């Protein structure tokens, strides 16, 4: 099968940073595995971080933690999918990735492809959806509405109820934030605050449903105070360490901070006076540790697929880079490493 991988860790501008490969097909699926014909993939920061830091010592490794495709075969214990089903999933870091024509993946971390989306559009969703959903509703324990709100045009500051509760999503333009904003707007009664520093990113956040966009290059606590809001929930997605002092100052007493990025050097004791808490979201944890509730990821992907098909959540593709090959994946990795992308970059077909 065709695949794209790497044999040694190199900077992305190195000609061998990613390589076109010809590898054996995977073995027949076992247990609850699906054999998926990959139709499209997207690229996440974890791809670039793994490529740069996890040297496979000359043995080719295939990355890729987002895919949409068609089930070609199922293991003997599968109950959720059948051959011919269209699926979308993120996989797991300790198994071969999705940058290949065929991939084995556990059905319990696999969701149905939203019927209203193309394979490329669907490939942008799984990792960011799982991360945002688990962070909001499992780690931060944000209360959910009984039913999703009606889809409506963003109305900016007019939607902010002074004195109400808010969730603050740091780094609003990235892939995870682009889903978190939508989930928080659709499934909670909170005021949704995002941060951005560029006009185009601010407009992106508002278009996804953020009630207000704060400037993370400015004084975040002062901006929150001016809105008259309590912030019991903070989702730190990017450069949490740089904003830690501001987070601890603006966080409401007994609040929670959930982070997905590196937190080296932060002063956790700064949360003590407010009896506040710090939690981590790692969307691969369920699959890595084979937790009894692994199928929760299948359930949440199915729920969000329904929200997509109902027109309440939209895909976050902003760049389609063409076919799945080493040259185009190098371009995608470079975009992710630049740290200025809005939404997601996707590739489609081999």
TrEMBL record:
Entry's family note: Belongs to the zinc-containing alcohol dehydrogenase family. Quinone oxidoreductase subfamily.
Alphabetical list of InterPro entries matching this protein: ADH-like_N, ADH_Zn_typ-1, ER, GroES-like_sf, NAD(P)-bd_dom_sf, Zinc-ADH_QOR/CCCR
Organism of provenance: Dankookia rubra
Limits of the Enoyl reductase (ER) domain: 17-347
Domain of life: Bacteria
Keywords linked to the UniProt accession: Metal-binding, NADP, Oxidoreductase, Zinc
Protein name in the entry: Zinc-type alcohol dehydrogenase-like protein
Gene Ontology MF annotations: oxidoreductase activity; zinc ion binding
């Amino acid at each position: 099968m065709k695949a794209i991988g790497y044999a040694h860790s190199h900077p992305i501008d190195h000609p061998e940073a990613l390589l076109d490969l010809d590898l054996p097909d995977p073995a027949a699926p076992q247990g609850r595995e699906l054999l998926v014909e990959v139709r499209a993939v997207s690229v996440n920061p974890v791809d670039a971080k793994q490529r740069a830091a996890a040297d496979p010592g000359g043995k080719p490794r295939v990355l890729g933690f987002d895919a949409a495709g068609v089930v070609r075969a199922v293991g003997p214990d599968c109950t959720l999918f059948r051959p011919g089903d269209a699926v979308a999933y993120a996989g797991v870091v300790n198994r071969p990735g999705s940058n290949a024509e065929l991939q084995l993946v556990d059905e319990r971390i696999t969701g149905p492809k939203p019927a209203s989306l193309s394979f490329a559009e669907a490939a942008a969703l799984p990792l960011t959806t799982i991360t945002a959903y688990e962070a909001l509703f499992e780690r931060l324990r944000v209360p959910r509405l009984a039913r999703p709100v009606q889809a409506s045009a963003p109305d900016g500051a007019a939607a902010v109820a002074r004195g109400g509760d808010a969730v603050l999503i740091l780094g609003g333009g990235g892939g995870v934030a682009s889903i978190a904003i939508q989930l928080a707007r659709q499934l909670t009664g909170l005021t949704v605050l995002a941060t951005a520093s560029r006009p185009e990113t601010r407009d992106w956040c508002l278009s996804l449903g953020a009630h207000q966009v704060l400037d993370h290059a400015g004084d975040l606590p002062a901006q929150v105070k001016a809105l008259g809001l309590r912030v019991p929930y903070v989702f730190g997605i990017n450069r949490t360490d740089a904003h830690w002092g501001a987070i601890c100052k603006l966080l409401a007493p007994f609040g929670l901070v959930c982070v997905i990025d590196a937190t080296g050097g932060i002063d956790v004791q700064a949360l003590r006076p407010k009896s506040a808490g710090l939690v981590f979201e790692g969307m691969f944890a369920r699959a890595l540790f084979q937790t009894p509730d692994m199928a929760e990821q299948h359930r949440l992907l199915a729920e969000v697929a329904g929200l997509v098909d109902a027109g309440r959540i939209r895909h976050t593709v902003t760049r389609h880079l063409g076919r799945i090959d080493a040259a185009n994946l190098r371009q995608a990795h470079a975009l992710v490493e630049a740290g200025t992308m809005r939404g997601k970059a996707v590739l489609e077909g081999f």
